[in-house]
Amino acid sequence: GNMRKLGDIFVDKFPKGVLFLYAVEADKASFIMKTNRANSSVDCSAVLKQVMPIVSGRGGGKPDNAQGSGEASKIQDLIKAVEGAVK
Predict the structure, then answer these.
(1) CA 3 remoteness from chain centre
(2) Is 2 helix (H, G, I), strand (E, B) or coil?
(3) What is the pLDDT of residue 2?
(4) CB crowding 19-51: b at 16 or more within 10 Å, else e
(5) What DSSP element (H or E) covers 60?
(6) Which residues lie across from 65 on neighbouring strands?
(7) Hey, which residues does 35 pair with through a beta bridge?
(8) What is the pLDDT of residue 29?
(9) Is the pLDDT of residue 31 over 90?
(10) Of 2, 7, 33, 55, which is most buried by a Cβ count within 10 Å?
(11) How far is 25 from 86, CA to CA, in rounded Å?
(12) DSSP string over 5-61
């Protein structure tokens, strides 16, 4: 819930920005990727579907808002993959 609220604040303030937030609890990582609806340069759902195998995870969503979860031990690899996919 808090990640979604923070994401909403971010996209309101940075309409062309892309936000990737994650939280780790025990051996599970939860994450959210968000951008403004008007930003058609990034499809958050497509990016997450592309990188999910890295964390043996699952998730999805819409082009402007997607979320998922997976293995916490691989979160740094996931972050690098998301960065590469968004650049």
Answers:
(1) 10
(2) helix
(3) 82
(4) bbbbeeeeeebbbbbbbbeebeebbbbebbbeb
(5) strand 58-62
(6) 34, 62
(7) 18
(8) 95
(9) yes
(10) 33
(11) 26
(12) HHHHHHHHH-TT-EEEEEEEETTEEEEEEEE-TT-TT--HHHHHHHHGGGGT-EEEE
Widest CA span in the chain: 36
Task: Kindly state the tokens that stand for 41.
Answer: 């340069």
Distance CA 55, CA 52 (A): 6
pLDDT tens-digit map of 35-80: 999 999 999 999 999 999 999 998 899 999 999 999 999 999 999 9
What backbone torsions phi and psi does residue 36 show, to the nearest 5 degrees? -70, 145
Residue 59, beta-bridge partner list: 68
Q: What is the pLDDT of residue 8?
A: 87
Encoded tokens for 3: 């990640």
